[in-house]
Each structure stands twice: as C-alpha cells, then as structure tokens.
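Tip: read the tokens left to right.
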C-alpha cells in the first residue's frame, strides 16, 4: 500500500482519522519493503483466543498439523503448530525465513487438517 492509496482511503473513510497524533493512523509508518521484513523478524505474533474445548476434531494448541486445501489446487500442505482453534478458523504458528515467527489463519471450510 503506497502513500497515495493511504491518502485516498483516509479521504473515503473519514472515521479512520484521529486515531493517532495529528490525525494520522498510529500503525502507519512509511517504510521500504526490506524494513517491513526487518520489523516482522524482530516481532512476535500476538494471538487472542484459544482452543475450543468442544472441537469436533479434538484439535488442541501445541499439536503439530498440516493444513491442505480440499480441492486439487496443487498447493502444498502448510505445516505448523496449532495456536488457536475456533468454529470457523484454525491458526497455526510457523517460522518463515524472511520474516520470522508468523501466525497463519485458515478457514475451517474447504481445508483438511492432518495431525503430524
């Protein structure tokens, strides 16, 4: 998202203004793509929520799993550690070479979860 797009968005949605000093969004800081990876690499994902104790698959936080689309899309399974399970979403934690620890959110519908 470039600065011009942000200005347009702020113009279209005035309710976004005033969230930070001098009406700027607190979370928006212009930076290069390389800087965004640096920030991500030194940050840890924060996750609210937990695991549904009545999950029909019995999925629990900390279990290793592979998540794959049900369709034959050719996408490789995404492996990670389950961080949260809800009625509609599964969140896994994994490490990425470029940006460090990340949380990956998947919808429950149309995905297969295989415990490893």
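Filled-in amino acids:
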């Amino acid at each position: 998202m470039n600065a011009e797009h942000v200005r347009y968005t702020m113009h279209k949605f005035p309710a976004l203004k005033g969230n930070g000093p001098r009406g700027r969004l607190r979370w928006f800081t212009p930076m290069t793509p390389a800087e965004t990876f640096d920030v991500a690499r030194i940050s840890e994902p924060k996750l609210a929520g937990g695991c549904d104790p009545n999950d029909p698959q019995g999925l629990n936080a900390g279990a290793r799993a592979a998540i794959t689309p049900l369709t034959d899309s050719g996408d490789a399974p995404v492996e990670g550690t389950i961080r949260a399970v809800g009625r509609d979403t599964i969140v896994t934690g994994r490490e990425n070479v470029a940006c460090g620890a990340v949380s990956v959110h998947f919808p429950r519908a149309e995905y297969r979860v295989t415990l490893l």
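Residues 23 and 108 are 38 Å apart (CA to CA). The first helix runs from residue 3 to 12.
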